[in-house]
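User: Can you help me understand a structure? I only have the sequence.
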Amino acid sequence: MNRLGLAYAAGAFGLWGLSPLYWRLLAHVPALEILMHRIAWSALFLAFVLRGRWAALRAAAARPKTAGLLLASTALIGVNWYLYIKGIEDRRVLDTSLGYYINPLVSVTLGVVVLGERLRGLQAAAAALALAGVLWVVRAHGHLPWLSLALAFTFALYALLRKVAHADALIGLSFETFVLTAPAVLGLLWLAAHGRTPPDARTWLLLAGGAGVTALPLLWFIEAARRLDLKTMGFLQFLSPTLQFLIARFAFGEPLPNSRLLSFVLIWAAVALYCGDAALRSRRS
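Assistant: Let's start by predicting it. Here is the structure, written out as tokens:
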């Protein structure tokens, strides 16, 4: 298994899992406004990082297939960012956690159906356990968890598109961010014209810092996706919702009925099974 890919994946999912602690510091700012700042500051950050690679960005934009796939991934990641921030703002971090538990199942399914990847026996058993855990959560909800499902499907489809777009991580992310920059800046200018700007220097700094919280894990994620198959990526993604779960429960004090706790136990068992399979395979190799 690619060790560098695993390191990139651990960094991306670890930072995403801890990010609710950061975005909660901006709870006094509306989610859409945070999203516009997130895009604008990320564009500045990426413009600095990109430096001498503008020709590569123009070349990617000139390839119709690559540009089309990246435009689709841009729409997906924009929606995903907004829903995630909105979930934290509405104190629904357990729901965002559920969404990112469902997401790997969608990734695994896409890997098998679209890319022709195969599941080994223990991997299939782990997927079945995780699916059982997710279905139990849905049953405990008593209604369709739209926020969780939207987060799961937008990010899984985003991962698939970025894998088949054959675009460098930095180039692809820069393309996506720059496409979103114009509407984000126009929105911020409209807010400023109506007297709605960040209230103090601390808020400005937190909004600017969101560029790193946004861009770094995405860059790491895309580098990991290029090196690992979707099955491995799918199960490593359980790191992020597990951290979100712990933060929601113990830092934010969100309630967790016993019916929902059982579903998380099933999912954790699935992760343990999959990791055991990976360890056995590595030892045999």
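Now, to help you interpret it: The chain is about 85% helix and 0% strand. Residues 3-284 form one domain. Let me know which part you'd like to focus on.
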